[in-house]
Write a structure and sequence with these properties.
The complex is a heterodimer of chains A (249) and B (250).
Chain A: H1 2-19, H2 26-36, H3 41-64, H4 72-110, H5 113-119, H6 124-163, H7 167-174, H8 180-206, H9 211-244
Chain B: E1 7-18, E2 21-32, E3 36-41, H1 47-54, E4 62-67, E5 70-71, H2 77-85, E6 87-90, H3 102-113, H4 118-131, H5 147-159, E7 165-169, H6 177-192, E8 197-201, H7 205-211, E9 214-219, E10 222-227, H8 229-233, H9 238-244
Parallel strand pairs in B: 3-8, 3-9, 6-7, 7-8
Antiparallel strand pairs in B: 1-2, 1-4, 4-5, 9-10
The chains are: A mainly alpha (249), B alpha/beta (250).
Chain lengths: 249, 250
């Protein structure tokens, strides 16, 4: 286990180093951002709306007891932006993107396509792994922002159905207690989630063996391991955010 | 074979083990420019591993692998890339990139390593595909091709940068005799008309007789014998004789 963690860490460190060395493979990074980002957007948006609706229903049930239903929009927005949006987006993307990268690179490995890239005088690590990791680092925070707003929109839909609150009033109240110190650190931490998803999935894809069975295993392990690492990283990152931005406590 | 002659490829005492199992055991041979060298042997005797040593996909535990005078395993990445551009590699199943079209597979090395305009890249990729009989398949996806077509497309990709050396892994494995013969003829033309150096891994003795200026037999990681097809036919070694007279080869 320790050897595995060491190998993945070295893989990630090498990716970080190579990301700042030419050639930068911008076309491939753009293609991967499209694959990781744009193609995940419907999943993130729909999930965000659903989470917002559910959170709103739970919040209403609790706050009604204290006669504080007017605080529902603000409470939901804070919960969504600070934690629920980033963590849910990270876990959803570890499923969709992590499994995809693990399976794709695993299949390329067992069908000698990675060797074929090398034989064509292309640095396969840079072309396949670094581009995907960079794309994840860029796309996950953007998708998290989409999830935050979809969640708030879902909250509005639930609240409008329950109390008839107007769109304008709901959004005014949502952002009453939200500042950039709530949004920026919580969203930027998902760049770390993106790094974890890209690195773990690429590593498992690159080290796939034993044919199609190995591809399936790489895909499943990508999801499981990146999900666990995201949750563990979240604990550390939240602690760091509280330390660096005391106003968010 | 001249020991210090005009060798395009030279392996000197190459040894390689995987998980404690010796796959190549003190292998040495040289391939002269413009000739074809066929590596024969049973499955799992280290033929493909030898080929991958030549292009630097595998590093030897001991020994030297020289390609046009450059010691491949000891080259830094940038120099290794320059040496690789002078080689084309046909993988056993073609190893086409399955996310792009057949045409873009062939165009890929040109896009990566030349500054040619798009029209010229497409023209050259089409020309190579026509050469292997796939002129109408530029826009098809690799999954839509048969095994033989994938292999021919792989050959077009291997040759598109006009390399001086072609490394070919089992060109006729799993193919019908007619397709197999077509690929042999393509390789023969590459040698005779374009002066390319070929290293061909094969089980197919008739194919080795057609292509090979020199044949070598690997067994359990060791080079048992090498020479012309006629030399191997005259061998007293039972394994060599058995191999040369198999598959209609005699």
């Amino acid at each position: 286990m320790l050897a595995w963690v060491g190998d993945v860490s070295l893989f990630g460190a090498r990716a970080l180093r190579d990301a700042f060395r030419p050639p930068f493979e911008l076309d491939e990074i753009a293609r991967q951002i499209y694959e990781v980002g744009w193609r995940s957007a419907p999943l993130i948006f729909v999930s965000g709306v659903a989470v917002g609706v559910v959170l709103s229903m739970h919040t209403r049930a609790s706050l009604e007891r204290f006669g504080a239903v007017s605080m529902i929009p603000a409470g939901l927005a804070i919960a969504m932006i600070r934690e629920t949006g980033p963590l849910t987006a990270g876990l959803l993307l570890s499923g969709r993107v992590g499994a995809g990268i693990g399976a794709e690179l695993g299949a390329m490995k067992v069908t000698e396509q990675i060797d074929a890239l090398e034989a064509s005088a292309v640095d396969s690590f840079k072309y396949l792994a670094v581009t995907r990791i960079v794309a994840c680092v860029i796309a996950v925070p953007l998708l998290t922002t989409l999830m935050d707003f979809a969640g708030i929109l879902g909250g509005f839909l639930a609240e409008h159905a329950a109390s008839g609150m107007s769109f304008r009033l709901y959004f005014q109240r949502s952002f009453l207690f939200i500042g950039f110190e709530d949004f920026i650190p919580a969203t930027l931490k998902t760049a770390v989630f993106g790094f974890i998803i890209g690195t773990v999935a690429s590593y498992l894809g690159f080290t796939t063996s034993q044919g199609t069975e190995g591809v399936g295993r790489a895909s499943t392990r990508s999801v499981v391991l990146s999900s666990i690492l995201i949750i563990l990283a979240d604990v550390i990152l939240v602690r760091m955010i509280f330390f660096l931005f005391p106003g968010t406590v | 074979m001249t020991p210090n002659g005009d060798a395009a490829i030279r392996l000197d005492h190459v040894t390689k083990s995987f998980d404690g199992r010796k796959v190549l055991d003190d292998i040495s041979f040289a391939v002269e420019r413009g000739t074809a060298f066929c590596l024969l042997g049973r499955s799992g005797t280290g033929k493909s591993v030898t080929l991958k040593h030549i292009i630097g996909l595998i590093r030897p535990d001991a020994g030297h692998v020289l390609v046009e005078g450059e010691d491949v395993p000891r080259l830094p990445r940038a120099k290794l890339a320059r040496v690789r551009k002078r080689m084309g590699f046909l993988f056993q199943d073609g190893a086409l990139f399955d996310s792009i079209t057949v045409g873009e597979n062939v165009a890929f090395p040109l896009r990566r390593h030349t500054d040619l305009p798009n029209d010229e890249i497409v023209r050259r990729a089409r020309a190579r595909l026509e050469q292997v009989g796939l002129g109408h398949d530029y826009d098809r996806m690799p999954a839509e091709l048969s095994g033989g077509m994938r292999k021919r497309a792989g050959l077009a990709r291997a040759m598109v940068l006009d390399p001086s050396i072609l490394l070919v892994d089992e060109p006729s494995a799993g193919l019908d005799p007619i397709t197999s013969e077509e690929i042999d003829q393509l390789l023969l033309r590459a040698k005779l008309d374009e002066g390319k150096t070929l290293v061909v891994v094969t089980h197919n003795i008739p194919s080795a007789r057609t292509l090979g200026d020199e044949l070598a037999l690997l067994d359990r990681g060791r080079l048992v014998t090498r020479g012309t097809a006629a030399d191997l036919d005259r061998s007293d070694n039972a394994l060599v004789r058995g191999f040369m007279h198999s598959q209609g080869g005699g």
